[in-house]
From TrEMBL:
This is ARHG5 factor. GO terms for molecular function: guanyl-nucleotide exchange factor activity. It comes from the Eukaryota. GO terms for cellular component: cytoplasm; nucleus. GO terms for biological process: intracellular signal transduction. Residues 1-76 form the DH domain. PROSITE patterns: DH_1 (PS00741), DH_2 (PS50010). The lineage of its organism: Eukaryota, Metazoa, Chordata, Craniata, Vertebrata. It comes from Pitta sordida. The gene is Arhgef5. Pfam families: RhoGEF.
Length: 150
């Protein structure tokens, strides 16, 4: 979005009749859609082959290889989403010191959200409760609490 030249070229290519007015995103998703269709095709082939035949052995091997490929693709997509979340979060969070590296290959964000912190002030005989918003960021290896910048 930040590169106007790229946007112009992309719009020109997407409007070309050869692309059939499909967006770049549809071309990026298409291989994943084909892989899942291949899995369905192999399932149907396995249903129609004779048990314990050479064709069944080959179809089973192809199906197992395709299952592994789909699993690897899904894991890589999840890893990329996790990395994108960490990059976005690292741009939003400002540390007083840069000791804690937020972006790591092994780190992923599990859950995040806003909480309300209760502060109990006890110097007087009456309990006074004040609240302030804090944010909880639970990673697979640590817990980060943050507060909005004042």
């Amino acid at each position: 979005n930040g590169n106007a030249g790229f946007q112009q070229v992309l719009e020109r290519l997407e409007s070309d009749p050869v692309c059939q007015r499909l967006s770049l995103k549809s071309f990026l998703i298409l291989p994943f859609q084909r892989i899942t269709r291949l899995k369905l095709l192999l399932q149907n082939i396995l249903k129609r082959t004779r048990p314990e035949s050479e064709e069944e052995v080959q179809a089973t091997q192809a199906y197992d290889a395709l299952e592994k490929l789909i699993k690897d693709c899904n894991e890589n997509v999840q890893r990329m989403k996790s990395t994108e979340e960490l990059i976005y979060l690292s741009q939003k969070i400002e540390f007083e010191c840069k000791i804690f590296p937020l972006i790591s290959q092994s780190r992923r964000l599990v859950k995040c959200g806003e909480l309300t912190a209760l502060d109990f002030n006890t110097p007087s005989p009456k309990w006074k409760v004040t609240t302030r918003p804090i944010y909880l960021h639970l990673f697979n290896d640590c817990l980060l609490l943050s507060r909005p910048k004042e």
